[in-house]
Structure formats: C-alpha cells, structure tokens
Amino acid sequence: MVIETLISRTRSLSISSQPPSLAESFTSSSSTTSSSEREPTFLPDEVVLQIIAYLPDSRDRREWRLAQTTLHAACLVSWQWYNVAISRLYNRPFLYGNNFEKFVKTICPSLNAHVRKSDLAGLVHELNMSALVHQGSKSTTARLLGRTKAQLHSYVAPQANFGINCLAALSKCTALRDLDLSLVSEAMTYKELSNTLRNLKHLHTLAWPRSAGKFSTPETLVRMEWPPKLANLRLSGDLYALMWNDVNPQDGRPTNLPPGLTNLTIQHCALDLHSVKLLLTLAGPQLKQLSITDMTRFPSRQPSALDEILELCPDLESLAISHTYLSDGFALDESPAILSYTLTHPLRRLKILDVGADGFDDRIGASDLEIWFTDGAFPFMEMIEVHCCPGYYPGDEERKDWIMAETLLKANAEKMGRETEGVSVDLFKAF
C-alpha cells in the first residue's frame, strides 16, 4: 500500500514526462491549485530504482501477482518510471488465463520473428506457464520459446500445451539453467528428450517429464546425453526408460548418470523398492540432498524399506523422506544402540513426512531421537522437521518428548562448538 500510494503521488508530480497534450490537459483542469503543486518534481533515476527495489520478489503466487500489478502501475506514471520498471515487470511475468493472450500478442506481435520483433521479449528471464490449462496452443508455446530464447534462464512447461513440436524450440534456449517438464502430459520418446537436453549446456536443474520414454522397451538402446552442469534432478512419473537405458543398461554398458549430480528428488513414480535402492547405490555416494516421497509401489507394511539410506549416501547433508519408509533401525540397532556410521555422518537437515499415516509402533519417534542425541549420533544435525499427516497430531506427552529431543540437539550443538540459533526440532500440523 505504501508503494502504491507513493506511485500515485509521483504520477501527479511527474506529469511533465507525459506527452505535452496530457500535461496541458492536466494543467488546465488544475488551475485552482497553487503554483507549487502544479510545478513538476523530477526524481533521479536512482531514487525511482530504490522505490522499485522495495517491491518483494516472492515465490508466493499472491505476493507475486500483487507485485506485478504494482509494477504495471509504476510503468504508467511516466516515461522515466516506465524505463526503470519495465525490465522488472517482464523479468518474471505472472501468467494466468485472463492475461495470457495479451502477453502472447506483446511478445509475438507477428507469426514470423523477422517480420516484426518485440524488444520486450529479451527482458523475459523466467517463464512459468504452470497455471495455464487450455489457454493457447502447442504452436503458441513453441513460438514463445523461440522469441524469448536469448535470455530465458528458467522455464516451467504447461500441462496440456507442450508437445513434441515444442522440443525443437526448447533446445535453442541455450541459456536455460532451470527446466521443469514435470507437468507435461504428452508422451515423448527417450531419444527426443536426449536430443533436446544435450544442447542445454548451462542447465543446472531438471524436473523430469512424467511420460518420458513411455514407448521405450528394454531393447531401445538410447543413452541420455546429460547437460554437463546438471546438479539437481527431480524424477517423477514413468522412469523405466531411464532405468533400462542409463541406470541399469540391459546391454552391459556402464551406468550413465549426470556426473555432477548432487541433489535428487524421487516422487510420484512407479519404481519398486529394488529399483530405487539400485539407483541410490549408484548415485548415492555423490548426493548432498535427497527427497523420496509418494512412492506408489513401495511395500505398505515394510517399515524398514529404506533404513540403510544413509549408508548408501555417506555424504548426504539433507534428507526428506516419508515416515512410512523408515523404522527405528534407521539409526539404532536392536539393543537399541546407535549405529557406528551415525557418529560421523554429515547429515544436517532431516524432514520426516506423513507422520502418523499408518499407526505402526516401530517407526522413528521422539524417544529414538533422544537416544540419538544422548549417545552422540549425527553430530552435525541442525534441524529436524516433523510433518504430521492430516487427522493426526501428537498428544501432550509425545510433544514433551519432541521438546526434550530439541533440548538434546541444542546441547550437542554446543558440545560441538556451534551456535544454537536455528537448531530446532519442529512439529507441523496438516490442515
């Protein structure tokens, strides 16, 4: 509100920057005001930049949309404000059903780029089309990618309007660092995906398309040409082509995974427990961050499914995992005493999801954490997040146990000579 008020006031002060006819109109209609109010006040560009900098650059959709509305208002104040705010407005445009057609007409004023170009296309650095359902078409998506390819750093593909014909345009977006294809519903072959990714030399983060390689078989011999800088990989959907061709090749070839892979997310996919363990055995030694949730083919009554995950990932610093995949054997033996590898493991952040989903007694609980930190397990641990499933929240006695676990965790941090600020065990209730 403060910024919007400032913009509205500045609009009246900067009227001299508008076309003369507008200024004359304003002057004639304001003849009753004092001369000091009619005289325009010039603000240096540095001041305008400072005002625009106060707008939040949030990932929250509500704040993002509000910031875009304010930036649009700033562009209408004067040519000076327009020149300052326009790059911020188009840097990360907020796209939804009602404004998408206007955005397309602005970025693509003609079907052919050589007929009529838009200077605003080069200002687009992040293009998020995830909120679009049936707006536009696959050809429109391809055209947008073609016009914004020079400076496009981040792209989130829509569900319905991204097809095989968009891959050629996507492969020319060579400045891309973040690519999210997880919503794409149209199936694409493994070879088509590989041919696209090999051109994205600067790609750092990739969200795997859920239907990639849907028509592949174990006899389809295609190797993925991974971008050399790929470090963050999010896997979902149909992953059998990935397993057949690169993780566990059927023709005896060596495993082919991104050499710089450090962050791995596996969720909403149909891989069984054996396949996931095989993937972790091969990729685990290089991982720093790992997330495994919502696996539809994991055994529902095997609480120790991934107890050995820290042995497979000896350098892991952050782990997010469903409560149903771990038992108290995650860090304890049958005594119970802590396992030896936990005394030196570098794990710093642990997020436990879906707590209370199945009611088994041998899952990780607050009492297990008390044993961990009393006996010196996980000496580098800084934060534990416990996310309860809907309809469940610990009672008073159990919450006291979690508070005690936090006290012991902070005591361990002090013993290691680390600051205790930010060291915590937090409970989150699902709504």
Automatic annotation (TrEMBL):
Coiled-coil regions listed in the entry: none
Comp. bias intervals (Low complexity): 25-35
SUPFAM superfamilies (UniProt xref): RNI-like
Domain F-box residues, every copy: 43-95
Region (Disordered): 16-40
Origin superkingdom: Eukaryota
Protein's name according to its UniProt entry: Putative f-box domain protein
